Protein backbone atom coordinates (compact mmCIF):
# COMPACT_ATOMS: atom_id res chain seq x y z
CA UNK A 1 0.00 0.00 0.00
CA UNK A 2 2.31 2.76 -1.18
CA UNK A 3 -0.32 5.47 -1.46
CA UNK A 4 -2.01 5.25 1.93
CA UNK A 5 -0.72 4.88 5.48
CA UNK A 6 -2.15 3.76 8.79
CA UNK A 7 -1.51 6.14 11.68
CA UNK A 8 -2.00 5.06 15.25
CA UNK A 9 -3.15 7.48 17.96
CA UNK A 10 -3.39 6.35 21.59
CA UNK A 11 -6.85 7.86 22.02
CA UNK A 12 -8.40 7.59 18.57
CA UNK A 13 -6.91 4.25 17.61
CA UNK A 14 -6.03 3.59 13.98
CA UNK A 15 -6.83 5.93 11.07
CA UNK A 16 -5.99 5.80 7.39
CA UNK A 17 -4.40 8.71 5.49
CA UNK A 18 -3.63 9.43 1.84
CA UNK A 19 0.05 10.03 1.04
CA UNK A 20 -0.63 11.41 -2.45
CA UNK A 21 -3.41 13.32 -4.21
CA UNK A 22 -6.31 11.30 -5.61
CA UNK A 23 -9.07 12.32 -8.01
CA UNK A 24 -12.69 11.27 -7.57
CA UNK A 25 -13.01 7.76 -9.04
CA UNK A 26 -9.37 6.78 -8.43
CA UNK A 27 -8.57 3.46 -6.81
CA UNK A 28 -6.81 4.13 -3.49
CA UNK A 29 -5.80 0.49 -2.96
CA UNK A 30 -6.87 -3.11 -3.30
CA UNK A 31 -6.50 -5.71 -0.57
CA UNK A 32 -7.44 -9.29 0.22
CA UNK A 33 -8.60 -10.21 3.71
CA UNK A 34 -6.48 -11.87 6.39
CA UNK A 35 -9.40 -14.20 6.81
CA UNK A 36 -12.86 -14.47 5.25
CA UNK A 37 -15.84 -16.80 5.48
CA UNK A 38 -19.22 -17.21 3.83
CA UNK A 39 -22.22 -16.91 6.15
CA UNK A 40 -23.68 -20.20 7.36
CA UNK A 41 -27.32 -19.79 6.27
CA UNK A 42 -26.17 -18.38 2.96
CA UNK A 43 -24.07 -21.49 2.31
CA UNK A 44 -26.82 -23.83 3.53
CA UNK A 45 -29.25 -22.26 1.05
CA UNK A 46 -26.89 -23.11 -1.81
CA UNK A 47 -25.47 -19.72 -2.66
CA UNK A 48 -22.50 -21.62 -4.12
CA UNK A 49 -19.24 -19.80 -3.51
CA UNK A 50 -15.54 -20.66 -3.55
CA UNK A 51 -14.69 -21.74 -0.01
CA UNK A 52 -11.58 -19.54 -0.13
CA UNK A 53 -12.22 -16.35 -2.18
CA UNK A 54 -16.07 -16.39 -2.15
CA UNK A 55 -16.31 -16.16 -5.94
CA UNK A 56 -19.85 -17.02 -6.97
CA UNK A 57 -19.73 -20.45 -8.67
CA UNK A 58 -23.16 -20.97 -10.20
CA UNK A 59 -23.42 -19.69 -13.73
CA UNK A 60 -25.67 -16.66 -14.07
CA UNK A 61 -28.52 -18.67 -15.56
CA UNK A 62 -28.52 -21.30 -12.79
CA UNK A 63 -28.33 -18.56 -10.19
CA UNK A 64 -31.30 -16.67 -11.62
CA UNK A 65 -33.28 -19.91 -11.97
CA UNK A 66 -32.72 -20.67 -8.30
CA UNK A 67 -33.37 -17.12 -7.07
CA UNK A 68 -36.53 -16.70 -9.17
CA UNK A 69 -37.63 -20.34 -8.56
CA UNK A 70 -38.08 -20.77 -12.30
CA UNK A 71 -36.19 -23.82 -13.64
CA UNK A 72 -36.98 -23.07 -17.28
CA UNK A 73 -35.65 -19.50 -17.31
CA UNK A 74 -33.18 -18.80 -20.12
CA UNK A 75 -30.77 -15.84 -20.04
CA UNK A 76 -29.92 -14.13 -23.33
CA UNK A 77 -26.27 -13.28 -24.11
CA UNK A 78 -24.74 -16.27 -22.26
CA UNK A 79 -21.29 -14.99 -23.25
CA UNK A 80 -21.77 -12.25 -20.62
CA UNK A 81 -21.52 -14.88 -17.89
CA UNK A 82 -17.89 -15.31 -16.85
CA UNK A 83 -18.18 -18.43 -14.68
CA UNK A 84 -15.58 -21.00 -15.73
CA UNK A 85 -16.91 -24.33 -14.49
CA UNK A 86 -13.98 -26.19 -16.03
CA UNK A 87 -11.63 -24.43 -13.58
CA UNK A 88 -13.67 -25.29 -10.50
CA UNK A 89 -12.23 -27.90 -8.19
CA UNK A 90 -12.81 -29.51 -4.79
CA UNK A 91 -10.79 -30.46 -1.73
CA UNK A 92 -9.97 -34.11 -2.48
CA UNK A 93 -10.80 -35.06 1.13
CA UNK A 94 -13.98 -33.18 2.11
CA UNK A 95 -15.13 -32.05 -1.34
CA UNK A 96 -15.71 -28.35 -0.47
CA UNK A 97 -15.73 -26.25 -3.63
CA UNK A 98 -13.08 -23.91 -4.93
CA UNK A 99 -13.04 -21.67 -8.01
CA UNK A 100 -9.53 -22.80 -8.98
CA UNK A 101 -6.54 -24.93 -8.02
CA UNK A 102 -4.93 -21.72 -6.75
CA UNK A 103 -7.67 -21.13 -4.17
CA UNK A 104 -7.68 -24.79 -3.13
CA UNK A 105 -3.92 -24.74 -2.57
CA UNK A 106 -3.96 -21.40 -0.71
CA UNK A 107 -6.74 -22.59 1.59
CA UNK A 108 -4.93 -25.86 2.31
CA UNK A 109 -1.66 -24.08 2.94
CA UNK A 110 -3.20 -21.41 5.20
CA UNK A 111 -5.98 -23.03 7.29
CA UNK A 112 -7.91 -25.82 5.59
CA UNK A 113 -5.57 -28.63 6.74
CA UNK A 114 -6.87 -27.97 10.27
CA UNK A 115 -10.49 -27.40 9.25
CA UNK A 116 -10.91 -30.20 6.66
CA UNK A 117 -13.44 -32.71 7.95
CA UNK A 118 -12.19 -35.52 5.70
CA UNK A 119 -15.54 -36.98 4.74
CA UNK A 120 -17.50 -35.65 1.75
CA UNK A 121 -20.81 -35.99 3.60
CA UNK A 122 -20.64 -33.94 6.77
CA UNK A 123 -21.11 -35.99 9.94
CA UNK A 124 -23.64 -34.11 12.12
CA UNK A 125 -21.70 -35.22 15.22
CA UNK A 126 -18.44 -33.72 14.00
CA UNK A 127 -17.51 -30.88 16.40
CA UNK A 128 -17.42 -28.35 13.52
CA UNK A 129 -20.90 -29.35 12.35
CA UNK A 130 -22.23 -29.04 15.90
CA UNK A 131 -20.69 -25.57 16.09
CA UNK A 132 -22.19 -24.44 12.77
CA UNK A 133 -25.57 -25.84 13.74
CA UNK A 134 -25.53 -24.06 17.12
CA UNK A 135 -24.49 -20.83 15.40
CA UNK A 136 -27.28 -21.01 12.82
CA UNK A 137 -29.79 -21.44 15.62
CA UNK A 138 -28.53 -18.29 17.32
CA UNK A 139 -27.97 -16.04 14.32
CA UNK A 140 -30.74 -16.01 11.72
CA UNK A 141 -30.72 -14.11 8.42
CA UNK A 142 -30.11 -11.31 7.63
CA UNK A 143 -26.66 -12.49 8.68
CA UNK A 144 -23.93 -10.10 9.78
CA UNK A 145 -21.23 -12.43 11.02
CA UNK A 146 -20.05 -16.02 11.12
CA UNK A 147 -18.57 -18.19 13.84
CA UNK A 148 -16.44 -19.80 11.11
CA UNK A 149 -14.46 -16.56 10.87
CA UNK A 150 -13.26 -17.35 14.41
CA UNK A 151 -12.61 -20.96 13.43
CA UNK A 152 -10.47 -19.81 10.51
CA UNK A 153 -8.54 -17.36 12.70
CA UNK A 154 -7.68 -20.22 15.06
CA UNK A 155 -6.79 -22.53 12.17
CA UNK A 156 -4.55 -19.84 10.61
CA UNK A 157 -2.59 -19.58 13.85
CA UNK A 158 -2.43 -23.37 14.24
CA UNK A 159 -1.02 -23.86 10.75
CA UNK A 160 1.31 -20.86 10.74
CA UNK A 161 5.02 -21.36 11.38
CA UNK A 162 5.44 -17.74 12.46
CA UNK A 163 2.68 -17.55 15.05
CA UNK A 164 3.86 -14.21 16.49
CA UNK A 165 3.48 -12.52 13.11
CA UNK A 166 -0.07 -13.67 12.48
CA UNK A 167 -1.10 -12.92 16.07
CA UNK A 168 0.30 -9.39 15.84
CA UNK A 169 -1.73 -8.82 12.66
CA UNK A 170 -4.91 -9.80 14.50
CA UNK A 171 -3.86 -7.62 17.44
CA UNK A 172 -4.00 -4.54 15.16
CA UNK A 173 -7.76 -4.72 14.76
CA UNK A 174 -9.85 -2.42 16.89
CA UNK A 175 -10.51 -3.55 20.45
CA UNK A 176 -13.56 -2.83 22.57
CA UNK A 177 -14.12 -2.32 26.28
CA UNK A 178 -15.97 -4.99 28.28
CA UNK A 179 -19.22 -2.98 28.11
CA UNK A 180 -18.87 -2.59 24.37
CA UNK A 181 -18.13 -6.29 23.95
CA UNK A 182 -21.33 -7.16 25.80
CA UNK A 183 -23.30 -4.74 23.66
CA UNK A 184 -21.94 -6.34 20.46
CA UNK A 185 -22.68 -9.87 21.69
CA UNK A 186 -26.21 -8.73 22.63
CA UNK A 187 -26.65 -7.25 19.17
CA UNK A 188 -25.50 -10.45 17.41
CA UNK A 189 -27.02 -13.10 19.68
CA UNK A 190 -30.06 -11.50 21.31
CA UNK A 191 -30.90 -11.16 24.97
CA UNK A 192 -29.58 -14.56 26.08
CA UNK A 193 -26.20 -13.66 24.72
CA UNK A 194 -24.27 -14.67 27.83
CA UNK A 195 -25.46 -18.29 27.77
CA UNK A 196 -25.14 -18.40 23.99
CA UNK A 197 -21.56 -17.15 24.10
CA UNK A 198 -20.73 -19.85 26.64
CA UNK A 199 -22.25 -22.56 24.41
CA UNK A 200 -20.29 -21.30 21.42
CA UNK A 201 -17.10 -21.08 23.45
CA UNK A 202 -17.33 -24.68 24.64
CA UNK A 203 -18.06 -25.91 21.10
CA UNK A 204 -15.13 -23.91 19.71
CA UNK A 205 -12.89 -25.39 22.44
CA UNK A 206 -14.08 -28.90 21.63
CA UNK A 207 -13.40 -28.42 17.94
CA UNK A 208 -10.21 -26.35 17.86
CA UNK A 209 -8.49 -25.92 21.24
CA UNK A 210 -4.88 -24.88 20.77
CA UNK A 211 -2.38 -23.94 23.46
CA UNK A 212 -0.79 -21.23 21.29
CA UNK A 213 -3.95 -19.17 21.53
CA UNK A 214 -5.08 -20.28 25.00
CA UNK A 215 -6.13 -16.69 25.65
CA UNK A 216 -8.88 -16.92 22.97
CA UNK A 217 -10.53 -19.88 24.72
CA UNK A 218 -11.14 -18.27 28.12
CA UNK A 219 -14.61 -16.69 28.63
CA UNK A 220 -13.12 -13.16 28.51
CA UNK A 221 -10.84 -13.94 25.59
CA UNK A 222 -13.60 -15.54 23.59
CA UNK A 223 -15.92 -12.58 24.18
CA UNK A 224 -13.19 -10.22 22.93
CA UNK A 225 -12.61 -12.34 19.86
CA UNK A 226 -16.32 -12.37 19.20
CA UNK A 227 -16.47 -8.58 19.54
CA UNK A 228 -13.46 -8.28 17.22
CA UNK A 229 -15.23 -10.04 14.37
CA UNK A 230 -18.44 -8.16 15.19
CA UNK A 231 -16.86 -4.70 14.93
CA UNK A 232 -14.18 -5.27 12.29
CA UNK A 233 -15.90 -7.72 9.94
CA UNK A 234 -16.50 -6.18 6.51
CA UNK A 235 -19.40 -7.64 4.54
CA UNK A 236 -18.51 -9.35 1.25
CA UNK A 237 -21.09 -10.02 -1.46
CA UNK A 238 -20.51 -11.81 -4.78
CA UNK A 239 -22.84 -12.80 -7.60
CA UNK A 240 -22.27 -14.22 -11.06
CA UNK A 241 -25.67 -12.80 -11.98
CA UNK A 242 -24.48 -9.26 -11.19
CA UNK A 243 -21.42 -9.90 -13.35
CA UNK A 244 -23.71 -10.98 -16.20
CA UNK A 245 -25.86 -7.84 -15.79
CA UNK A 246 -22.76 -5.65 -15.66
CA UNK A 247 -21.39 -7.21 -18.86
CA UNK A 248 -24.79 -6.89 -20.55
CA UNK A 249 -24.71 -3.14 -19.79
CA UNK A 250 -21.48 -2.90 -21.77
CA UNK A 251 -22.83 -4.65 -24.89
CA UNK A 252 -23.21 -2.59 -28.03
CA UNK A 253 -26.84 -3.01 -29.02
CA UNK A 254 -29.43 -1.27 -31.15
CA UNK A 255 -31.96 0.86 -29.22
CA UNK A 256 -34.59 -1.79 -29.70
CA UNK A 257 -32.38 -4.63 -28.49
CA UNK A 258 -31.31 -2.51 -25.53
CA UNK A 259 -34.91 -1.80 -24.53
CA UNK A 260 -35.83 -5.49 -24.77
CA UNK A 261 -32.81 -6.51 -22.69
CA UNK A 262 -33.40 -3.82 -20.05
CA UNK A 263 -37.05 -4.85 -19.73
CA UNK A 264 -35.99 -8.50 -19.39
CA UNK A 265 -33.53 -7.66 -16.61
CA UNK A 266 -36.04 -5.44 -14.77
CA UNK A 267 -38.61 -8.25 -14.84
CA UNK A 268 -35.99 -10.78 -13.71
CA UNK A 269 -35.23 -8.68 -10.62
CA UNK A 270 -38.95 -8.34 -9.87
CA UNK A 271 -39.34 -12.14 -10.07
CA UNK A 272 -36.27 -12.69 -7.91
CA UNK A 273 -37.46 -10.24 -5.29
CA UNK A 274 -40.81 -12.03 -5.07
CA UNK A 275 -39.09 -15.36 -4.44
CA UNK A 276 -35.88 -14.49 -2.62
CA UNK A 277 -36.45 -10.98 -1.19
CA UNK A 278 -33.19 -9.15 -0.67
CA UNK A 279 -31.05 -12.30 -0.47
CA UNK A 280 -29.36 -11.93 -3.84
CA UNK A 281 -25.69 -12.58 -3.23
CA UNK A 282 -23.21 -15.06 -1.89
CA UNK A 283 -22.58 -13.29 1.40
CA UNK A 284 -19.96 -13.44 4.07
CA UNK A 285 -17.54 -11.28 5.98
CA UNK A 286 -13.80 -10.80 6.21
CA UNK A 287 -11.12 -9.00 8.22
CA UNK A 288 -9.20 -6.43 6.15
CA UNK A 289 -6.20 -4.66 7.63
CA UNK A 290 -6.41 -1.35 5.72
CA UNK A 291 -10.17 -1.08 5.30
CA UNK A 292 -10.67 -1.66 9.03
CA UNK A 293 -8.39 1.29 9.77
CA UNK A 294 -10.80 3.65 7.93
CA UNK A 295 -12.94 5.74 10.23
CA UNK A 296 -16.53 6.66 9.54
CA UNK A 297 -17.85 9.90 8.13
CA UNK A 298 -21.46 10.70 7.18
CA UNK A 299 -19.87 12.54 4.24
CA UNK A 300 -17.23 9.99 3.22
CA UNK A 301 -14.47 10.59 0.67
CA UNK A 302 -14.09 6.89 -0.22
CA UNK A 303 -16.15 3.74 -0.60
CA UNK A 304 -15.60 0.00 -0.58
CA UNK A 305 -16.33 -2.06 -3.71
CA UNK A 306 -15.81 -5.69 -4.76
CA UNK A 307 -15.23 -5.40 -8.52
CA UNK A 308 -13.74 -8.87 -9.08
CA UNK A 309 -16.69 -11.00 -7.93
CA UNK A 310 -14.57 -12.28 -5.02
CA UNK A 311 -13.15 -11.18 -1.67
CA UNK A 312 -10.70 -8.64 -3.18
CA UNK A 313 -11.71 -5.27 -1.78
CA UNK A 314 -11.15 -2.04 -3.69
CA UNK A 315 -11.19 1.36 -1.98
CA UNK A 316 -12.36 4.02 -4.42
CA UNK A 317 -12.31 7.81 -3.97
CA UNK A 318 -15.80 9.36 -4.13
CA UNK A 319 -14.32 12.86 -3.81
CA UNK A 320 -10.95 14.39 -4.65
CA UNK A 321 -8.55 13.58 -1.80
CA UNK A 322 -5.38 15.53 -1.02
CA UNK A 323 -2.13 14.02 0.28
CA UNK A 324 -2.27 14.07 4.09
CA UNK A 325 -6.06 13.95 4.24
CA UNK A 326 -7.81 11.25 6.27
CA UNK A 327 -9.65 8.59 4.27
CA UNK A 328 -13.14 7.96 5.60
CA UNK A 329 -15.92 5.61 4.53
CA UNK A 330 -19.54 5.48 5.65
CA UNK A 331 -20.45 2.58 7.94
CA UNK A 332 -24.14 3.27 7.23
CA UNK A 333 -26.05 1.73 4.36
CA UNK A 334 -27.46 4.00 1.69
CA UNK A 335 -30.90 4.53 3.18
CA UNK A 336 -29.51 5.28 6.65
CA UNK A 337 -27.12 7.79 5.10
CA UNK A 338 -30.04 9.90 3.87
CA UNK A 339 -31.55 10.21 7.33
CA UNK A 340 -31.35 13.07 9.82
CA UNK A 341 -28.30 13.64 12.00
CA UNK A 342 -30.24 12.33 14.99
CA UNK A 343 -31.09 9.05 13.23
CA UNK A 344 -27.62 8.56 11.81
CA UNK A 345 -26.04 9.07 15.19
CA UNK A 346 -28.45 6.64 16.78
CA UNK A 347 -27.61 3.93 14.21
CA UNK A 348 -23.87 4.51 14.66
CA UNK A 349 -24.12 4.39 18.46
CA UNK A 350 -26.10 1.17 18.42
CA UNK A 351 -24.10 -0.67 15.80
CA UNK A 352 -20.63 0.80 16.09
CA UNK A 353 -20.59 2.29 19.59
CA UNK A 354 -19.42 5.81 18.91
CA UNK A 355 -20.80 9.34 18.64
CA UNK A 356 -20.18 10.74 15.18
CA UNK A 357 -18.34 14.05 15.07
CA UNK A 358 -17.84 14.24 11.32
CA UNK A 359 -18.07 17.54 9.44
CA UNK A 360 -21.65 16.86 8.32
CA UNK A 361 -22.78 16.05 11.87
CA UNK A 362 -20.97 19.17 13.14
CA UNK A 363 -22.71 21.34 10.56
CA UNK A 364 -26.11 19.93 11.58
CA UNK A 365 -25.50 20.16 15.30
CA UNK A 366 -28.35 22.66 15.78
CA UNK A 367 -30.89 20.62 13.83
CA UNK A 368 -33.86 19.54 15.95
CA UNK A 369 -33.77 15.90 17.11
CA UNK A 370 -36.59 14.75 14.88
CA UNK A 371 -37.19 11.23 13.70
CA UNK A 372 -39.49 10.33 10.85
CA UNK A 373 -42.58 8.19 11.47
CA UNK A 374 -40.90 5.18 9.95
CA UNK A 375 -38.03 5.49 12.38
CA UNK A 376 -40.38 5.85 15.33
CA UNK A 377 -42.04 2.58 14.35
CA UNK A 378 -38.64 0.93 14.25
CA UNK A 379 -37.89 2.30 17.70
CA UNK A 380 -41.07 0.75 19.04
CA UNK A 381 -40.24 -2.62 17.49
CA UNK A 382 -36.80 -2.47 19.02
CA UNK A 383 -38.23 -1.69 22.43
CA UNK A 384 -40.56 -4.68 22.19
CA UNK A 385 -37.66 -6.95 21.20
CA UNK A 386 -35.54 -5.73 24.08
CA UNK A 387 -38.20 -6.10 26.75
ZN1 LIG B 1 -11.60 -18.87 -5.26
ZN1 LIG C 1 -11.13 -30.56 2.85
ZN1 LIG D 1 -21.51 12.07 11.06
From TrEMBL:
Reactions accelerated catalytically: L-lysyl(36)-[histone H3] + 3 S-adenosyl-L-methionine = N(6),N(6),N(6)-trimethyl-L-lysyl(36)-[histone H3] + 3 S-adenosyl-L-homocysteine + 3 H(+); L-lysyl(20)-[histone H4] + 3 S-adenosyl-L-methionine = N(6),N(6),N(6)-trimethyl-L-lysyl(20)-[histone H4] + 3 S-adenosyl-L-homocysteine + 3 H(+); L-lysyl-[protein] + 3 S-adenosyl-L-methionine = N(6),N(6),N(6)-trimethyl-L-lysyl-[protein] + 3 S-adenosyl-L-homocysteine + 3 H(+)
Any Gene Ontology CC annotation: cytoplasm
Major subcellular location class: cytoplasm
Superkingdom assignment: Eukaryota
Xref: InterPro entries: SET_dom (IPR001214), SET_dom_sf (IPR046341), SMYD5_SET (IPR044422)
Biological processes per GO annotation: methylation; negative regulation of gene expression, epigenetic
Keyword Zinc listed: yes
SMART domains, per database record: SET
The protein's Enzyme Commission number: 2.1.1.359, 2.1.1.372
Keywords associated with the record: Cytoplasm, Metal-binding, Methyltransferase, S-adenosyl-L-methionine, Transferase, Zinc, Zinc-finger
Domain SET span(s) in chain numbering: 2-332
Annotated localization: Cytoplasm
Top EC class, one word: transferase
Compositional bias ranges of the Acidic residues kind: 366-387
Region (Disordered): 365-387
PANTHER family in UniProt: HISTONE-LYSINE N-TRIMETHYLTRANSFERASE SMYD5, SET AND MYND DOMAIN-CONTAINING PROTEIN 5
Protein's UniProt name: Protein-lysine N-trimethyltransferase SMYD5
Gene name tied to this protein: LOC106158561
